[in-house]
Amino acid sequence: MIKNMLSQEELIRYDRQIMIPEIGREGQERLKDAKIFIAGAGGLGSPVSIYLAVAGIGRIKIADHDTIELNNLNRQILHWKEDLGKKKVDSARDKLLRLNPNIKLEITHQTINEKNVSQMVDGFDAIVDAMDNFQTRYILNKAAVDKNIPFFHGAVRGFEGRAMTIIPGKTACLRCMYHGTPPEEKSPVIGVTPAIIASIQATEVIKYLIGTGDLLADRLLIYDGIGMIFREFKIRRNPECDHCGKKK
Amino acid sequence: MIIAERRNDVERERRRLLNRKDLELSIELSLHRTHRRYTDGKEIIQVDGKTVGECLRDLVNKYPPLEKEIFKSGKLNSLVEVYLNGESAYPNELIKPVKDGDKINLVYMLSSG
């Protein structure tokens, strides 16, 4: 049952995507009805929140604990020179509401950890992984599995990135395929790489919400920008997985 | 008579090809870009072995500097992902059996965002 009817302004604003047969007016209402949690307002978080906001996701919550530094600006396109020193979530809220005042936006300036994650993501329809480290990704993955919330994974380095969609209880989760925890480092990256991966993540979220197409479920997509190659690998659920092995 | 000579030619060619080492079937291993600096930029390396582990040992025998990238304390580096014929080989990657013509992809884990 769709609760949020579209206003006249929204019908015009989203006209070009409502024209897409897979979206239509009903799909647009589903997007307006949706609540999405975005973990991170950096390289991936900037484009993914921009595209979900302008697509008309009704409610977006962004969590990030960082402030803006000059060396963020090559890729974190929500943040500009005038924002240096501000909290990323404040800058994100300011820009996103200017891009689309019709959405509801919540922010939280916190580090996601094992204690607060459950309450932070409670009630959301999807979690977007826009993190910069695997410790927090695993915390989010576990919370997503435990609370049955689809989890949209993305990661980047240099000209390379990857994306996968996790539907708890149905598809492989992050721990079915990863076991390592790369050391936290100042990692090389150019802005076009998170732009591509975040666009794929946002596409997956939109498709999931409107219930169309084939998701990157059990499919790890790896993008190699230097070779301009997309590779896809099959990932199977691991019955011994410490996060989802017992999940039905 | 002509047909018999042709048969002999074909047989000689078959034997010649069978004796060529470089035409032996083996496992094709595709290296991640970060590891290609140890192989003069080569992405595809032909390796031999009956398991993923034996193939990786063959790889590091051919390119010894790769050893420290692929193995940690004799085990597979947990930041290296192994895909066998397009599927994740995790867990217990090293004992997964392989056969001639199989393809292994080695991928390095990414963490930034």
Set down the secondary structure blueprint.
The complex is a heterodimer of chains A (248) and B (113).
Chain A: H1 8-13, H2 15-18, H3 24-33, E1 35-39, H4 45-55, E2 59-63, H5 88-99, E3 104-108, H6 117-121, E4 126-129, H7 134-147, E5 151-157, E6 160-166, H8 174-177, H9 192-210, E7 219-224, E8 229-234
Parallel strand pairs in A: 1-2, 1-4, 2-3, 4-5
Antiparallel strand pairs in A: 5-6, 6-7, 7-8
Chain B: H1 2-19, E1 27-30, E2 44-47, H2 52-62, H3 67-70, E3 71-72, E4 75-76, E5 80-84, E6 87-88, E7 103-108
Parallel strand pairs in B: 1-7
Antiparallel strand pairs in B: 1-2, 3-4, 5-6, 5-7
Name some characteristics of this structure:
A: 248 residues; alpha/beta; 8-stranded mixed beta sheet; 34% helix; globular; B: alpha+beta; Ubiquitin-like (UB roll); 5-stranded mixed beta sheet; two-stranded antiparallel sheet; 3 helices; 22% strand; elongated
Provide a descriptive summary of the structure in words.
The complex is a heterodimer of chains A (248) and B (113). Chain A is built from 9 helices and 8 strands. Chain A is globular. In chain A, helix 4 (45-55) runs parallel beside helix 5 (88-99) and helix 4 packs parallel to helix 9 (192-210). Chain A starts with 7 loop residues before the first helix and ends in a 14-residue tail after the last strand. The longest helix of chain A has 19 residues, at 192-210. With 248 residues, chain A is an alpha/beta fold. Chain B has a single domain (26-108), classed as Ubiquitin-like (UB roll) (Roll), CATH 3.10.20. Chain B contains 3 helices and 7 strands. In chain B, the strands form 2 sheets. Chain B has a 5-stranded mixed β-sheet with strand order 2-1-7-5-6, covered by helices on one side. Chain B has a two-stranded antiparallel ribbon with strand order 3-4. The model of chain B has no long low-confidence stretch (mean pLDDT 88). Classes of the chains: A alpha/beta (248), B alpha+beta (113). At the A-B interface, strand 5, strand 6, strand 7 and strand 8 of A face strand 6 of B.
